[in-house]
Design brief:
Elements (H helix, E strand, L loop, with lengths): L1 H29 L4 H27 L28 H17 L3 H19 L13
């Protein structure tokens, strides 16, 4: 996790510097600060700080992984990584429901936003509980 928080810290530093340069550049060339881009860069900076801080806190709680130790061997990272779904249609359903919600927002159709929001919740819940109910239920160890 050491590497991850350093990457996000570097991205955050870049975004902070870029937002300052962008604000100065627009003020110098246009005579006023272009606020939308400046605020977007600052919000991206804060988002990177949040993710980097999360990785920093997690890195302090867990032992060093093979990726974090320079003297580690490649074979130490071998083995099972985790469970990945072999086939699920729920991500496509979530994307479709989010698209419906986005179209509702774009055309300001409240009924389409509500329908899309409900569909997003249903599809997300289906993906979350996919392997806990029905014929695909996995055994709890």
């Amino acid at each position: 996790m050491k590497t991850e928080w350093r990457i996000f810290g570097g991205i955050a530093a870049f975004l902070l510097a870029t937002s300052g340069v962008y604000g100065w550049w627009t003020w110098y060339s246009l005579g006023y600060i272009e606020w939308i881009g400046t605020i977007a860069l600052l919000l991206s900076f804060f988002l990177s700080i949040m993710v980097g801080t999360y990785f920093l806190v997690i890195a302090r709680r867990i032992d060093l992984r093979p990726e974090d130790r320079p003297e580690a061997e490649i074979s130490e990272g071998a083995g099972e990584v985790g469970f990945f779904s072999p086939g699920s249609y729920y991500p496509m359903g979530i994307a479709l429901a989010a698209s419906v919600t986005g179209i509702g927002v774009a055309f300001w159709m409240w009924w389409l936003m509500v329908a899309g929001g409900i569909a997003v919740i249903v599809a997300t819940s289906g993906m979350l509980f996919e392997y806990q109910t029905g014929s695909r239920r996995t055994a709890v160890e």
